[in-house]
Amino acid sequence: MPATTASRGAASGRRSMRVAVLRCIVAALVVTVLLAGLAVLVFWLVVRPKPIEYTVTSAVVKHFNITAPPGGGTAALNATFYLTLAADNPNRRVSMRYESLELYVHYGEGEGAPQLAVADVPGFGQPSRNETRLEVRAVVRAAPVADRAARELEHDRATGQVGVEVRVSARVCFDVGHVRSRHYDMRAVCSPVVIGLSPKSARSFRSVPCDVAIS
Fold it and tell me: What is the model's pTM?
């Protein structure tokens, strides 16, 4: 009997110890979550981050033409897009670092819009409360165009203007003081960007604000 009682007491003690350890782990996790939430709240109250803004401020297209091979076949598009984008960082305490940035020109709007041109922009740093202007040249050389898109582009050329969607994809990080964040993916969609085909059309171009998302 004494041996049985002792073994039961030992088992009970082990169970109590496991419960105590589990409680400590749960309490540590709760404290960690609360501290992380408090840190985020303090960061937001101190920094008060504002959304990044992108705008297409100028757009010109030159050498715009569509050619069809003799005897039929897929048409080809040639064009050079000259685009100016304003990247605005309105934050007082947050600077940015663009590790990479790519710009795409699509014909039409939406996910299914065919891509016409792409251009790479070198990485750059952007201070707080700064607007950086990006001068981008995107070239299309003999890009194959489906029949329907080719007919629509021919119609656009006849009317004297073409509508495109400009997309920006970038890899960015943020600096607050001496602390740098992890890398984020930034995407901007600017649409519709209507570009006149006449040499004087650049004077009448209306700026197009972009929808920006960071994840």
Answer: 0.79
